[in-house]
Structure formats: C-alpha cells, structure tokens
Design brief:
single chain, 65 residues, alpha+beta, 4-stranded antiparallel beta sheet, 1 helix, 4 strands
C-alpha cells in the first residue's frame, strides 16, 4: 500500500509525497519540522491514515561568524 502525504503552504502551494509504509510517514511527520525555520508552518494530511494538522518549523538559524 502507498501512503500519500499532502503538504500545503498557507499561500496555497501543494506537494504530494508517497511513502511505502506507515513508519516512513511517522518518521517524516516527526522529523520534517526540524527542516523548517521557526515561524514557518505547513498543513499536512494523509487521508489513508486519517491524519491532518499543521507542522511548525523548529530549526533556528545560526550565525556562522
């Protein structure tokens, strides 16, 4: 079975990502906020698993000086 996650920005852009297992979906949902800067949020949904919500960024930018 394929699990499709839909990511949607609040400006309306969407992207679909396919996963082959529930574990991959869970890993993506738990780790993706670490790649988004603080203050950035995306809507996430996976109809086949009945999940939907908002992922909020947790990555803080560091000064390389």
């Amino acid at each position: 079975m394929t699990y499709t996650i839909t990511l949607e920005t609040f400006s309306g852009s969407t992207k679909k990502i396919n996963f082959s297992s529930r574990g991959q979906v869970a890993q993506f949902v738990s780790q993706y906020p670490n790649t988004l800067p603080v203050g950035v949020s995306v809507k996430v949904a996976c109809d086949s698993l009945g999940i939907s919500g908002t992922l909020r960024g947790t990555q803080t930018l560091t000064n390389s000086n």
